[in-house]
Amino acid sequence: MKLIECPRDAMQGLPDFIPTVTKIEYLNALLKVGFDTLDFGSFVSPKAIPQLRDTAEVLAGLDLTGSRTKLLAIVANLRGAETAVQHTEISYLGFPLSVSETFQRRNTNQTTAEALADVATMHELCERSGKTLVTYLSMGFGNPYGDAWSPEIVTDFTQQLAAMGIRIVALSDTIGASTAATIAPLFSALIPAFPQIEFGAHLHTTPTTWREKVAAAYEAGCRRFDGAIGGIGGCPMAADELTGNMATENLLAYLAEQGVETELDMAAFMRAQGMAAGEVFAIH
């Protein structure tokens, strides 16, 4: 079981800038919990995501001593990837590839064909740099733009990624539109069809629908889940203002019910949870 904590996704849409020192203190607290991966920041245009304009400074302040957690940074283009791979502390680069042509243009100002070409180049760059590219298939469970969507389209995208040698694909519920009826068939079909790929679930949800989504993915064989403490963040285009990231505490509760041992330091988790509810997010 791999749990990926995503403070980057929680922070990026907040209008008030979180001080760099506060980010560093929070991320250092998260590094003590024992998550597999920490999605800590992004190397994108500061005009696009002003909240994360200090990612390089934050990275310089992180204490990785004794932490088993690996770092992941999101990039939106080749320039960002070239910057990210220069940092030896980073293990993973994440790139949002959308099955929706409209959303790809809005998110990275590219066509999906251009984005796929960039994925191939980024993968080669990561391979040369000793890093791994994580490809997020955004709008993986549907989209609001009227673009064609079907499980077959998602499978076709995955086939193209597999042909490139991509090893981690996270199906992403960008707007919280997924249901158990869409989640379960996709994971059930893709996981056995592409055994060389590690599939993850990046789910957005409302407070009342999280359990059915987690259960559908888990029962279909998914063993990699993204979450954010408090369920903070999510896509601003979601129609429901209650839609946010999958709350990590809910993930942990579900896994505990299934008897899954996460090997997390729960005392450290509670300290980080307290920080999230206090100085990190409460005043923003």
From TrEMBL:
<dbReference type="InterPro" id="IPR013785">
    <property type="entry name" value="Aldolase_TIM"/>
</dbReference>
<dbReference type="Pfam" id="PF00682">
    <property type="entry name" value="HMGL-like"/>
</dbReference>
<dbReference type="GO" id="GO:0016829">
    <property type="term" value="F:lyase activity"/>
</dbReference>
<dbReference type="InterPro" id="IPR000891">
    <property type="entry name" value="PYR_CT"/>
</dbReference>
<keyword id="KW-0456">Lyase</keyword>
<comment type="similarity">
    <text>Belongs to the HMG-CoA lyase family.</text>
</comment>
<keyword id="KW-0479">Metal-binding</keyword>
<feature type="domain" description="Pyruvate carboxyltransferase">
    <location>
        <begin position="1"/>
        <end position="270"/>
    </location>
</feature>
<dbReference type="InterPro" id="IPR043594">
    <property type="entry name" value="HMGL"/>
</dbReference>
<protein>
    <submittedName>
        <fullName>Hydroxymethylglutaryl-CoA lyase</fullName>
    </submittedName>
</protein>
